[in-house]
Write a structure and sequence with these properties.
It is found in: Nucleus. This protein is mainly α and 357 residues long. The chain has helices at residues 19-32, 40-44, 50-61, 72-85, 89-94, 101-118, 146-154, 166-174, 191-225, 236-244, 251-260, 262-268, 284-294, 302-307, 317-324, 331-345. The chain starts with 18 loop residues before the first helix and ends in a 12-residue tail after the last helix. It binds a DNA duplex (21 and 21 nucleotides) through α3 and α6.
Length: 357
DNA sequence: AACAGTCTCAACCGCCTCGAG
DNA sequence: TCTCGAGGCGGTTGAGACTGT
């Protein structure tokens, strides 16, 4: 049993929209508002199906839509949300005001996915590619410069994966050099190359997040084995990096990270007493605050997100929803939910090289 | 200049969800 | 509880643009 297509009318136009059609649609929606898409074509005098009108409006004509290059901050948010949510483009779009799910999807498929592959990361699982240790990768690939690697990799249908560790991949892929090894000035670079240059900050930050996850995983494992000292602080190193972070473009993301991370809070703001009586040295007030902020349903936070630009991101909402379903008072369960999530998701960063952090 | 290969992204397709009746 | 339809979502396509030879 197959559903009847919604657009089966005679003489309905398909393909690219003309300026005239756009004008008609904009004019109609300005006058009557959105909704009732099925009737809009007839009322607006368009030979299009309602669905096509809705897509044209929501993805292109809506006045608040932001177009053009994605900022490095937006890229970072997309990558991290994709890691926690997968291909939930509409969910990701809710965290990027004025960007459409279609635009984010396209940007992921044409840019970010390739970049992760080049870094040796599986864009689906966000874990290291199994072929990372593939000894058949040609030696000369390791010395590809930025200007050539972008095209050689992306244009090849049998894209090779790099066998170098992530940090060295970053150096290899993102350094903007010409074929003779001399630096390429911004003016000489095409937009795509600029994107690559920008992405190095994304990579640095992701490395930091990965390092953080690893240290937390180790601490949690130690905790489960009963070998963790009550005063152990496994956030110091990471928070120090965050505090020293000079790249202001990452400020919003760092705030996001700091807010979703109850461990980080205690070391970023040492004036707050840490309750060291708990196994993990977690300040319960902060943890409760964290759960309160991030355990809410996405839809109820919509306004909140809009008011706070990138907002309190539900980057880790999987775990926050999971653990928030338990009583905050029941700290054992809460910590278990949190730690299980970390243990489940931290493995993929095993092979990361943190020397450059 | 011409051609071929590749990339980009707007638009389409088909399935899913959810609310109304 | 079931059916229907509008709207929403994610995957895919293809025309035009771009780049290299």
């Amino acid at each position: 049993m197959s559903r009847k297509p919604c657009c089966v009318g005679e003489g309905l136009k398909k393909g690219a929209w003309t300026t005239e059609e756009d004008k008609k649609l904009i004019s109609y929606i300005h006058e009557h508002g959105e909704g009732g898409w099925r009737d809009i074509p007839q009322k607006a005098g368009l030979k299009r199906c309602g669905k096509s009108c809705r897509l044209r409006w929501t993805n292109y004509l809506k006045p608040e839509i932001k177009r053009g290059e994605f900022t490095s901050e937006e890229e970072q948010i997309i990558i991290m949300l994709h890691a926690s949510r997968g291909n939930k483009w509409s969910v990701i779009a809710r965290h990027l005001p004025r960007r459409t799910d279609n635009e984010i999807k396209n940007y992921w498929n044409t840019h970010l996915k390739k970049r992760l592959i080049e870094q040796g990361t599986d864009p689906v699982t966000h874990k290291p590619l199994a072929s990372n240790t593939n000894p058949t990768v040609p030696e000369n690939l390791h010395s590809l410069d930025a200007s050539s690697s972008d095209k050689q990799y992306s244009r090849s249908s049998s894209m090779p994966t790099m066998s170098c560790p992530p940090s060295s991949c970053f150096n290899t892929v993102f350094e903007n050099t010409s074929k003779d090894g001399t630096p390429v000035h911004e003016d000489d670079s095409l937009s795509r190359k600029k994107r690559f240059k920008k992405s190095s900050s994304t990579s640095r930050l992701l490395n930091k997040v990965a390092a953080k996850a690893t240290s937390m995983k180790e601490a949690l494992s130690a905790s489960m084995e009963g070998s963790l000292n009550a005063n152990t602080s496994f956030s110091n190193s990471f928070s120090e990096q965050i505090r020293n972070e000079e790249d202001s473009s990452n400020a919003s993301l760092i705030n996001t990270l700091a807010e979703f991370d109850p461990f980080l809070q205690t070391t970023l703001y040492p004036e707050h007493e840490v309750n060291t009586t708990s196994d993990l040295g977690i300040d319960q007030d902060y943890f409760s605050h964290f759960l309160e902020n991030f355990g809410r349903d996405d839809d109820h936070n919509e306004e909140h997100y809009m008011n706070h630009n990138y907002g309190h991101d539900l980057l880790m909402s999987d775990v926050s929803q999971e653990v928030s379903s338990t009583s905050v008072d029941d700290q054992d369960n809460t910590i278990e939910g949190w730690s299980n999530y970390l243990l489940d998701h931290a493995d993929f960063i095993h092979d990361m090289d943190y020397d450059s952090l």
